[in-house]
Design a protein that fits this description.
CATH architecture of the largest domain: 3-Layer(aba) Sandwich
Largest sheet: 7 strands, mixed
Radius of gyration: 21 Å
Order of helices and strands: HEHHEHEHEHEHEEEHHHEEHHEEEHHH
Bound molecules: pyridoxal-5'-phosphate
Strand order of the largest sheet: 2-8-7-6-5-3-4
Number of domains: 2
CATH superfamily of the largest domain: Type I PLP-dependent aspartate aminotransferase-like (Major domain)
Helix content: 40-55%
CATH topology of the largest domain: Aspartate Aminotransferase, domain 2
């Protein structure tokens, strides 16, 4: 069998495990799965209902008015001129990322840590993948010298670097100065960049996101979708924007062939409804910025609580994740039989009901005790919870008021569980 050395995506696996435990009546603090839980915006619900009778296949690239709306949206948001011919729509950005990896057949260079699916996708395609070492103390910032060492080892003329800012699993963002250096390096060394910007609308300091495509338009592929800022992961729609010019056109032709032989086209009602998501309606824009502000309050609160316990946490700059490092507790953990990040996750789930994901799933060496904690699920487990918290925020609750135990009881219990866990090590 081809994929014997691979296992199902760990993010989906942890979610299924936690749901099973919940069904068995167990308490679990679900910090394992990153999914924004806010309601579908009413305008989008209405648009989807209005188009429920759309039943025909659509063009493989995507519905023309949607393509136009996407290119206008990205041109306006990223302050870069994108033409509609640069846009393709797919059933989630995950499969579009796979399609690009398939089409390029490139050696892949991944910052450490990197989202769980990039490397397995490369393996499924037989593409070589190398992780760029990074240091916890440097907030996992990309080190160009380390990248260069790996680039020198690669004999494949086609090379691809994936950037993901804001980042899953660290919640950190790449600053403009570093982006510019990366762009210069990639241009000089003929390295393409897949810029996974699926979280760019969830930057905690509004207006701070810059795309590498601003510095390196000819070599950057920008990816995004509706899954994160509009909580529409289940709609399965994503977008990719290829570079302008002949090279981008050639890649697009290949992506269209890939689409035509695999997903054919994204679900028609979803594409019609998605047009509204890209039209910059002020009510949707406001909703996204409110949801982002709530993610920021919750992530920053959890980070500050964990930091106060002495846990090293990555900067909370966007998305809804924290990379928490427990190396300073190594001795005590070893006494409990914990020597890898996977051991740590099992220990946290079995003994403290905390679900998380090991850094090793994100390319961090297993003996480094980094885990990914998602901040989007706690106190948003039930279908009515996200709106309850949203309404409190809209009624003027400050971050401090919002995070009080009465409004975030599960978060408070989870933070107590972390404190008890660390105490148990002494
Ligand atoms: C960094 C990153 N990229 C891509 C995706 C894929 O998102 P989708 O396929 O829903 O567009 C995810 C989802 O978990 C993600 O976290």
């Amino acid at each position: 069998m081809l994929f014997e050395q691979l296992s199902p995506s760990s993010t989906l696996y942890i979610n299924e495990t936690v749901n099973r435990l919940w069904q068995d009546g167990e308490q679990v603090f679900h910090m394992g799965f990153g999914e924004s839980r806010f309601d579908v915006h009413p305008r989008l619900q209405k648009a989807l209902a209005q188009h429920a009778n759309k039943k025909s296949y659509l063009p493989g690239r995507g519905l023309p008015p949607l393509i136009d709306a996407v290119s206008d949206y990205y041109s306006s948001k990223l302050d870069i001129d994108f033409a509609p011919s640069q846009v393709i729509v797919g059933p989630g950005s995950k499969v579009l990322i796979y399609a690009l990896q398939a089409v390029l057949g490139a050696d892949l260079f991944l910052p450490t840590p990197s989202w769980v699916s990039y490397a397995p996708q490369a393996s499924m395609l037989g593409n070589r993948c190398r992780y760029i070492p990074a240091r916890v103390e440097n907030n996992y910032q990309l080190d160009l010298q380390e990248l260069d060492k790996l680039v020198q080892e690669s004999t494949n003329p086609s090379k691809l670097l994936i950037l993901n800012s804001p980042n899953n699993p660290s919640g950190g963002a790449i600053n403009d100065a570093l982006l510019e250096q990366i762009a210069d390096y990639c241009r000089a060394n003929n390295i393409l960049v897949l810029s996974d910007e699926i979280y760019f609308q969830l930057c905690f300091e509004p207006g701070t996101h810059t795309s590498i495509a601003s510095y390196y338009p000819e070599g950057s592929f920008v990816f995004g979708g509706l899954s994160k800022h509009l909580s529409l992961g289940g709609w399965r729609i994503g977008v990719a924007l290829v570079p302008p010019g002949n090279f981008g056109r050639k890649v697009m032709q290949n992506l269209l062939i890939f689409a035509s032989e695999t997903w054919s086209s994204v679900s028609a009602p979803i594409q019609y409804a998605a047009i509204e998501a890209y039209r910059l309606h002020p009510d949707i824009e406001d909703y996204v910025s409110d949801c982002c502000a709530i993610h920021a309050i919750r992530s920053r609160y959890i980070r500050s609580q964990l930091s106060a316990l002495g846990i090293h946490c990555s900067a909370a700059e966007g998305a809804f994740y924290i990379a928490a490092n427990f190396d300073s507790f190594k001795q005590g953990l070893a006494n409990s039989g914990v020597t890898t990040s996977t051991d740590l996750c099992h220990h946290l789930l079995e003994k403290w009901q905390i679900a998380s994901l090991p850094g090793s799933d994100f390319g961090v060496p297993p003996q480094i005790l980094t885990i990914r904690l998602s901040t989007s699920y706690l106190d948003m487990e039930g279908d009515d919870d996200p709106d309850r918290i949203y309404q409190l925020y809209k009624s003027g609750h400050t971050g401090e008021q919002l995070m009080k135990q009465e409004h975030h009881p599960v978060t408070a219990s989870a933070m107590r569980a972390f404190a008890a866990f660390l105490n148990s090590l002494n």
